[in-house]
Amino acid sequence: MENNFDPTIQGNSQTGSTSSGSFVNDQNSSVLNDTSIPEKIVLDENTSNDIGAESPVLNEGFNISNQENLQISPLNETPQNPEIVLDNPDPVLNETLQNPEISLDNPNPDLNETPQNPEIVLDNPDPVLNETLQNPEIVLDNPNPVLNETPQNPEIVLDNPDPEESLNIPTSQNEIKGSLMPKSLEIKKEEKSAEEIDQANRLNLQNKELQNTILSANIPQLVMIAISYALEMRSSDIHIEPLMKTVRIRYRVDGVLMHIVEYPQNLHPAVVSRIKIMSNLKIDEQRIPQDGRADVTTKEGKEMDLRVSTLPTVNGEKIVMRLQDKSRKIPDLPELGITGIGLKNLEEALNAPNGIIINTGPTGSGKTTTLYSCLTRKNQIGVNILTIEDPVEIQLDGLNQSQVNHDIEYNFATGMRAALRQDPDIIMVGEIRDRETADTAIEASLTGHLVFSTLHTNSAVESITRLVNMGVPAYLLNSTIELIIAQRLVRKLCDNCKRVQKVDTEMLEIIDNAVKALKVEGELDTALLKNMTFYEAVGCDKCNGIGYKGRLGLYEVFRMNNEIRRLISEGASGIDILEASMKNGMVTLEQAGVIRALEGKTSLEEVYRVARKME
């Protein structure tokens, strides 16, 4: 937005001051004392927060005169283009600016104060005017000095010059100290498109945009850039956490939280309100937790589903946003990492006419993705699929998805009973949490339906123990359970920087025991066992210095058979059931992890971070 005004100074004298100095201007002289614009603007405690503060240097312009009362147009009339066109130019000065071969040896300081060619040496330059003409990034077209001194995002248009209605931008050092990861506040004049630069440059660009929106206090853009940046970093969750003096933003990338940026406390209420409005939550309710969801389209055109959760803390409301990229394709079972005998057993269970398939693992282990991958295979015209979820995380065409609502007593058990009256072929219930839900799932299985569900246990065999502990009779488990999957996610090693790891003798013995207990041929290439080589993480530019990039699944597929049914009926221990299942070809989480480590896909450190060692 242009400001069309001509504040040429009139009268015999004008006196004013700025935050860095003062000047006196009369008809015969132009003297500026200690007035300069720094090459990089530093925001400290002495920076004025008063947006309405007046600056004669910026508001009144310049009227530089020599002995012959020559006048130059105000700075606001001077464009940034190196070919400066003056509305009322001094012939001598204009010739000097346009001809680089002319040297300024005129003792008149007024002519020396307006250089254009960087090779000209000024005996007594005007710091403000010289900085303005030489630095193309400084545009003095806004009468508000604070807004002119604050680097703005190129996409933000500040078209309100009224100081009383301007934003209260946090500029003191205490407010932004430690808030920005890179210290530089410079903005590039030309930004390459995302197709022309690699991922590292795109991440750096979005990080700078996030910093600039914090400085400009543009709350809607701050939220959107934070979400886009999280998607670019392949993060699954955004944590916005109020601390005692600042608010920090962290991303969970490949299962590990990473610190991104901090912003002042005074911006947090507006950020919380913005996110609550997006997710249709009550903005005036700050005493109790709230859950919501929102559909968001980023400026890159990506459509996302957000699961938003708020939690009151002593320093303010904490917000966690779970990101679900709608454009991401649900991977098929082999792409998830289910191979060999485990994939064969799972495909046989999917083709069964009825029964229960259970997926178990901790929160964030990828259970929902695995179940949706199974449902995608069964999603056909002749199959009626109903899901009862809390909440619906992935929306798929062809599925009838329902979300529970505990406020009106609509829970998993209620939803399951209603689903049985909808003529379903396949039912998926989000989680078996109690005896009532377990009984309803068993009832659906006994009446000819294929049922999918989840549990929170440490292994596949322990799911049997958990269901028995809920009170489900053993004979019902034997009649309904078809297959149980236990899974974990481990980080993948970066192929660009991984290096061979030296493994001590104790660890080699543990690995040897796990490999010897593997009863299935074809699960592991024998060539890898002859010269066992393992790799460790290092860190490089391609993986942002982490050493890992992406994740892969470890799967323990437990298939029910007659021998195991007999052990369950006899009340056998979990150890006996585990030995019987391994004898029949089950690969444990530890064994699956060792296989992936031998293949160079992950590290032993990651494997034993999620899997227990075999005794």
Structural description of this entry:
With 615 residues, the chain is of the alpha/beta class. It is built from 22 helices and 18 strands. The protein has helices spanning 56-59, 91-98, 109-112, 127-134, 145-149, 173-176, 199-216, 219-232, 268-278, 333-336, 340-350, 367-378, 412-419, 435-446, 460-470, 474-480, 505-516, 526-530, 562-569, 574-583, 589-598, 604-610; strands spanning 13-17, 22-26, 30-33, 235-242, 246-253, 256-264, 290-297, 303-313, 316-325, 355-360, 385-389, 400-403, 426-429, 450-455, 481-493, 499-501, 534-536, 548-559. The longest helix has 18 residues, at 199-216.
- What would the principal axes of the Cα set say about the shape? globular
* Category from helices, strands and their pairing: alpha/beta
State the end-to-end CA separation.
72 Å
Binned, the helix content reads: 25-40%
> How many DSSP-defined strands?
18
**Oligomeric state of the chains in view:** single chain
Radius of gyration: 34 Å
Major beta sheet, strand line-up: 12-11-13-14-10-15-18
